[in-house]
């Protein structure tokens, strides 16, 4: 077994230096990693194709997404708002006298990242969790997913080489493999947070393990999501066939192996969408990412098709083709233990509702999801539906389909349990907040303050001064 | 037993309306509560004096702090940054096409607040947890602390009356009492977060209970803190007697019943501070807040004075007077299981270090605290000490004493485990973030967006648009 104690101790030792490295330095690390991954794209894609059965174009796109993500976090560092600098002036005349307080976010310390199976780059060794933790100055130890070990090792070599070349402290990044190694990371006193993308069962076990430690630490898990879609009768009447084509594309994309796959679609009874959908569904048996996913897909299908009242609309009952099931809303509620369970793979369930009341009742039974999607027409009164969707999801879509998660400043990839375990995102600029904690300096001598908090705003970042948010040019704090 | 199911269901029902209430409306609720508490200050203080044995001036000050806190959160709402509005424009030409994404923070839903014993107003029924949750639109159910039931009930009556008068939805606020009622709140499916101020043992149990729920929820616990102080030899030589007076005032303030009481003070061997301190320590046996605290103080003293090598510098070994102990750093490390345990009440431990290396070694053994304080002279080289303090505390002080927590925009009241259980604060403007979660709207029709995210910035709040932070006057999003 890898010497986890030595690796985590090296990360702990590195943490002081990674925290002290300035924003430009850490941005240069992220950009160097991005450049090197882009430079090795052919090699990386070849390795990943062999290990994951995902196609060339998808994997190339995913490398680009991964390097774009690294570069976004570099931009986030240089912009500086991520430090959440807040300065309150002293008021010696107040009762009691008010001290000078200057607050900012600081890196939390070494982070363990559990890579996902379904994104060998974007949610893996150099994916969003790693990028956001490194960005804010946290050393990272990644536990590789066993589904793509060669891709993981090669990516890690490139990350380590880039960090070394730029003079990052030894111990800033490491890769480990193995189940027991992963658990040892979670238990290590040096590790200050765990980020995980995977199954609800494994995630729940890790969450409990993080809390059972002598010193509990935050667990950022992305665990499971049905990504319900609602189609109003008006939308179905106006463009049911188009919606069927879009849905078919979304739930079969990447063979349905996305956390944002639409797994539950509410349609009016006798919908055009339902009639049109089977024509867009493939009949081949896809090669899924891992044996565990293949087995999970088979088991999930079997449980679902066995539910009384569930019809097979498209796909084969007994072989692992893409699958569309259909059931009435009453059947969904009667068998929610099966039908509200995520089936990872190319399957979706159409749920027929008779009227708005039945739709609302069904929605009230749903747990949290990463996304919810509404297809409506301008004349529909959907305020009530939007409220219900907002309560249950982190991303609410008003057209299109939930697969495809743009990486940007505004993105939110997270939602109420079991979608994620905290009120944060794992995609987009604000993902860094998971790995930061606030520190306030009270009456500190100027030279002992971090530059972000010094008089005159030497870093030129947005800061809140005496309650007023000030952009760099207008930060009047002398 | 109170009908917890009915109360939590009422809170769940109210949550839609409290979330939909606009910022000005919720600000008016907070201000009305503040005004009514101020108006009833004589009555409230009289009740609290009888129940807590705290003096009139302290309790009046605490009511003022509580109402000032409510008004600060009203200001936070109207300023609008707390919504963290971020807008990314669509780019249909991108590959893949980028959707229009608009993110903001939304209320998490009904919150359970466990009131503290030691602040019958500021960390109790209408204290910071309640104020920050109500501020962002979360209904609140407070579990009263049994140490001051009449004060709690009267405060709750005033809160409910103010909310009713302003037309807040029924179910926005409720008070419950009793141990089992508290547990039932934590277990209620309607409750979306728990805030707690109290002991490490109780807090750990509640944390595990929050995670063991069918749907785990965040637990915001403030559990225990030693608030270590470091005095350099130069500071001791320059002003040891003054520091002794300040320390004596701080650790005996409120009879040491503050989460920020300095419980561990590192002094050079043969310090002036140590010589001077006994003269500033009282000899009376104070009346503590509750029987449990009285017993805990007695037990903690007994354990500490029994440690070989621990001297009693001031106070009585056998009666519950204020107590100052002293020990060498080597004794601290040998008996850290006892000497690094928080003793709630008027006691503090001086730890004598021989040289900087011994001081650093001792600091490396400390767990997280709410605060750490440094008393140094300008010529001292303290970079290394400041790094260690920053790693272990949420507030780092460079003069003064940790008791007294200013309520403002920059304040941070929280720190690494066991000080608090998450990377948030329970005091200051950013305390609201505990009760919010992000939601992003993708390609939403304008009229279905919350006002904070609409074109033209109708609320006039700071927003980030296409990566650039813009103040209201300059938010160019048409």
Walk me through the structure:
- The structure is a homodimer of 478-residue chains.
- Chain A is α/β, with parallel strands linked by helices.
- Chain A has 2 domains: 4-223 and 420-436, Aldehyde Dehydrogenase, Chain A, domain 1, CATH 3.40.605.10; 229-397, 3-Layer(aba) Sandwich (Aldehyde Dehydrogenase, Chain A, domain 2).
- Helices cover 39% and strands 17% of the residues of chain A.
- Chain A has 15 helices and 17 strands.
- Chain A has helices at residues 4-20, 23-39, 41-52, 56-79, 128-135, 149-165, 179-187, 200-212, 233-252, 272-276, 291-305, 329-334, 336-339, 356-364, 383-392, and strands spanning 85-88, 101-107, 111-114, 140-143, 173-176, 193-197, 219-222, 229-231, 264-268, 311-314, 323-328, 347-353, 369-375, 393-397, 436-442, 463-465, 468-470.
- In chain A, α2 crosses α6, α3 (41-52) packs antiparallel against α6 and α4 (56-79) runs parallel beside α5 (128-135).
- Chains A and B meet through β1, β2, α8, α15 and β14 of A and β1, β2, α8, α15 and β14 of B.
């Amino acid at each position: 077994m890898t010497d986890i104690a030595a690796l985590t101790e090296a990360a702990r030792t590195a943490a002081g230096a990674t925290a002290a490295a300035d924003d430009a330095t850490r941005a240069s690390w992220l950009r160097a990693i991005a450049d090197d991954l882009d430079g090795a794209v052919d090699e990386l894609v070849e390795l990943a194709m062999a290990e994951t059965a995902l196609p060339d174009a998808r994997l190339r796109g995913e490398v680009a997404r991964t390097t774009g993500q690294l570069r976004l976090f570099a931009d986030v560092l240089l912009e500086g708002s991520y430090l959440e600098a807040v300065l309150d002036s002293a008021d010696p005349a107040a009762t009691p006298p008010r001290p000078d307080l200057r607050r900012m976010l600081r890196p939390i310390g070494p982070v363990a990242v559990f890579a996902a199976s379904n994104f060998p780059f974007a949610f893996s060794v150099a994916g969003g969790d790693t990028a956001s933790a490194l960005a804010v100055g946290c050393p990272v130890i990644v536990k590789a997913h066993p589904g793509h070990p060669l891709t993981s090792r090669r990516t890690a070599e490139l990350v380590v080489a880039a960090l070394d070349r730029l003079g990052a402290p030894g111990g800033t990044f490491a890769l480990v493999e193995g189940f027991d190694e992963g658990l040892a990371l979670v238990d290590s006193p040096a590790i200050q947070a765990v980020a995980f993308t995977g199954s609800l069962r494994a995630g729940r076990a890790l969450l409990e393990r993080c809390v059972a430690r002598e010193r509990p630490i935050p667990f950022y898990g992305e665990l499971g999501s049905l990504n319900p879609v609602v189609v109003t009768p008006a939308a179905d009447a106006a463009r049911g066939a188009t919606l069927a084509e879009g849905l078919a594309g979304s739930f079969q994309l990447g063979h349905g192996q996305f956390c944002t796959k639409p797994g539950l679609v509410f349609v009016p009874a006798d919908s055009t969408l339902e009639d049109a959908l089977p024509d867009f569904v493939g009949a081949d048996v896809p090669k899924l990412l891992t044996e565990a996913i293949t087995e999970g897909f088979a088991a999930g299908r079997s449980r679902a098709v066995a539910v009384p009242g569930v019809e097979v609309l498209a796909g084969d009952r007994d072989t692992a083709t893409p699958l569309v099931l259909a059931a009435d809303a009453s059947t969904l509620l009667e068998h929610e233990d099966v039908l509200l369970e995520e089936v990872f793979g190319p399957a979706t369930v159409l749920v027929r509702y008779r009227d708005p009341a039945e739709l609302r009742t069904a929605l009230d039974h749903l747990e949290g999801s990463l996304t919810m999607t509404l297809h409506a027409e301008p004349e529909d009164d959907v305020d009530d539906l939007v409220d219900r969707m907002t309560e249950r999801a982190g991303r609410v879509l008003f057209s299109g389909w939930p697969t495809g998660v743009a990486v940007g400043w505004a993105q939110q990839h997270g939602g109420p349990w079991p979608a994620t375990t905290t009120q944060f995102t794992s995609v987009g600029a604000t993902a860094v907040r998971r790995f930061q904690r606030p520190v306030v300096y009270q009456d500190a001598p100027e030279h002992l303050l971090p530059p972000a908090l010094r008089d005159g705003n030497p870093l030129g970042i947005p800061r809140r001064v005496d309650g007023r948010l000030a952009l760099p040019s207008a930060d009047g704090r002398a």
